[in-house]
Design goal:
CATH class of the largest domain: Alpha Beta
Number of strands: 21
Number of domains: 3
Shape: globular
Strand order of the largest sheet: 1-2-3-7-6-4-5-8
Strand content: 15-25%
Bound molecules: magnesium ion
């Protein structure tokens, strides 16, 4: 999340608001944000849905109050992944949508993600207007005879599954024939209500792990390699072909090999892009800090790879502009434009199992067609965002003679490695990400960059 405003327990960002429940994220704040959104969309049709967090019912009621009070016709699709809510907004041609989720944030967080007509992420002008309505408290409240309404529909999951099954790159009979055994770990998040069903519809032998949609997350909501021990063990003990895991709102997907090894989250987008480009030609869009594997995929298929600043909104914007056939981030979030301009962990399941079904290779064998890369992620605390800005300017000057990409911060690029230094949107830190052929090389690159930054900072702030 690129934050506009941050406290320890509240983040107001470009995509919405997130905070700690029972603290900053209280009913009053939620109602006010919903009323501001209802004012922005002028009391028209709004689709709402939520992930499985235990604070969901509280947030749901507080948000309904704000929407109905501003005259909105609310269509409530219930517990759903974020991409499902946005897809329903598109199918219903709604005027806006609102997802109650804190995505991959810890269990005690919740929040709202806003989107405008037909599930499009808010543009800058809409974001600015929403925040100014929220801050002014100047809501257009409806009179007694113009109150909004709430309609509940329970077909969102079916619609998402049938939309995925309708993708022209998916051949369910082919997957049925391969008889894949798959362990799916939804972390008791929103994926629980859809992903096991989709896998069964595709003819996989499905083993459910943490697929109880009760919001008690047995592992961190962010599916990092360290969080997937239970899944890795299950894949081994079940002798499965593949392990899959989502974050809390299932817009991300990460993979575990048949050997019970967690794959870097970078592989989801790289594999999906390789798979899709075998079906059709078109541009790819990735952020500057997404793996070089995407350059390799683009080169292999002779298509253009566009790099954007970090953030799904930037990727979506560039995809619309270029008509790209796929886009995404290294976090395991992949965008399939035929379904919607949002990261969709459910569609990613279909793409990955179809890819496996079309080959006799195991997932470990499939990834050997990609060169080995390792990514290192570090950060440097800085006294303020202003100093971070000055520091970045100094970095540009220092490396002016090199091959630099200034899309987001500074990215120094060599033939087989890169390092990106950029400002965090959420805290006064500089993020330093690097990628090289080995873990050691990537770490060395990060460390030497940190040393350079520290010495430049000493010159700037004088300590
Ligand atoms: Mg998410």
């Amino acid at each position: 999340m690129n934050a506009l405003n941050t406290h320890d327990d509240l983040i107001i960002s470009v995509s919405g608001v997130r905070g700690v429940v029972g603290s900053a994220l209280n009913p009053s704040l939620l109602t006010h944000f919903a009323a501001a959104f209802g004012t922005l969309v002028e009391g028209q049709t709004v689709v709402i849905g939520r992930d499985t967090r235990t604070s969901g019912p509280m947030a749901h009621h507080a948000i309904l109050a704000g929407l109905v009070a501003t005259g909105c016709k609310v269509i409530d699709v219930g517990i759903c992944p974020t991409p499902t809510v946005l897809l329903m907004s598109k199918i219903l041609t709604a005027d806006g949508s609102l997802v109650i989720t804190a995505s991959h944030n810890p269990i005690d967080w919740n929040g709202i993600e806003f989107a405008s007509q037909s599930g499009k992420l808010l543009n800058e002008e809409e974001r600015t207007r929403l925040m100014s309505i929220y801050e002014s408290g100047n809501f257009t409240l409806a009179a007694w005879d113009e109150q909004g309404s709430v309609e509940t529909i329970d077909t969102a999951i079916d619609q998402h599954i049938s939309s995925v099954l309708g993708c022209d790159w998916l051949i369910p009979e082919c997957i049925h024939a391969r008889k894949l055994k798959v362990v799916i770990d939804c972390g008791n998040g929103a994926g629980s209500v859809i992903s096991p069903r989709l896998l069964r519809a595709l003819g996989c032998d499905v083993i459910e792990l943490n697929c109880v949609p009760d919001g008690y997350f047995p592992r961190p909501a962010e599916p990092t390699s360290e969080a997937l021990d239970q899944l890795c063990t299950a894949v081994k003990s079940e002798d499965a072909d593949l392990g899959l895991a989502h974050d809390g709102d299932a817009d991300r997907l990460v993979l575990v090999s048949e050997e019970g090894t967690p794959l870097s989250s970078e592989y989801t987008f790289a594999l999906a892009a390789e798979f899709l480009l075998n079906k059709r030609k078109g541009d790819i869009v990735a952020t500057v800090s997404t793996s070089r594997m995407l350059d390799d995929v683009a080169n292999r298929h002779s298509v253009k790879l566009h790099r954007t600043p970090v953030g799904v909104g930037f990727v979506v914007e560039k995809m619309r502009e270029t008509g790209a056939v796929i886009g995404g981030e290294g976090t395991g979030g992949v965008i399939y434009p035929e379904l919607g301009y949002t990261t969709d962990g459910i569609a990613s399941i279909a793409a990955i199992v179809q890819l496996l079904a079309e080959s006799t290779a195991t997932i470990s064998e499939v990834i050997t067609s990609f060169p080995n890369y390792a990514i290192c992620k570090e950060k440097l605390e800085v006294p303020s965002q202003e100093i971070a800005h000055v520091l970045l300017e100094e970095v540009v000057e220092t490396y002016a003679h090199e091959n630099l990409d200034l899309t987001d911060g500074v990215k120094r690029i060599w033939g087989d490695r890169w390092v990106n230094i950029r400002k965090s949107g959420t805290e006064p830190v500089l993020r330093v990400f690097s990628e090289a052929r080995t873990t050691e090389e990537a770490k060395t690159l990060c460390d030497s960059t940190l040393e350079t930054l520290k010495s430049l900072m000493t010159q700037i702030v004088g300590y």
